[in-house]
Amino acid sequence: MNFDAEQLRALAAVLDEGTFDGAAARLHVTPSAVSQRIKALEQRVGRVLVVRARPCRATEPGAVLARLAAQVAVLERDAGAALGGDGTAGPTRLAVAVNADSLSSWFPAALVGLPDDVLVDLRREDQDRTAELLRDGTVTAAVTADAHAVQGCRVRPLGAMRYVGLASPALRDRWFADGVTSDALDRAPAIAFNRADALQHRYAERLVGHQVAPPVHYVPSNTAFVELLRAGLGWGMASEAAAAAGLADGSLVDLAPGRHLDVPLYWQHWALRTPTLDDLTSRVLAAARPTLHV
Q1: Which residue range is the domain that position 23 belongs to?
Q2: What is the pLDDT at residue 287?
């Protein structure tokens, strides 16, 4: 089945921008023109591709074609560069899923000096769920905890992010005066990034050998998370980079010195051999190397 390039661009723009008006502004056409292209593409495949909501989202067949559209855009960009193009076709957008701790530490270094005609659209998601965005075609690449390559993707190990169990001295003295016991872990309040963040439970299970069920605060901000650990709202897991300042000034203590949780991370991207994706992969590997544990 052959697909019209302008129709694929319209589909990608609608899903990226979330509205037909936003897609029209991005493509420098009218909303009516965008609507006509989407309808023509839907008629071509005989399926509904876009759920007309706010924001617009892809149906299952729409996600398949959105992935194709993004792949075509990358290939067009690299073909134009190889042929000495002047870049007038516009920038190529790469959607990348990254976990919050990587995004707040080592990952930004990978984007320094990115070519002017490459735009990144970073999607923050837990490392245990970023692979789902690859599977549904939402992103081109992802930092993920999944070592198994998503269908149609390549996977490269990045190293492990090390997490330590932290608390304020006052919270430690109140809840863990007799040590980090099973009973204390069941009663002491914990802080998690969100409901997908299982690090606290995994760490506690590793320490005492079985699952615990502490009361949990949810704080979906890296900065606020560490500040509330310092303030004694609860105990929680933070990366070495996030923990360093608090451990140095004494506002945080390591609940179980010498015990930590290493989370292996992997870089997965579409199995396209193109200069754009190869360059991004090289940048990500180089940025991860000084920070993550081998």
Answers
A1: 1-90
A2: 97
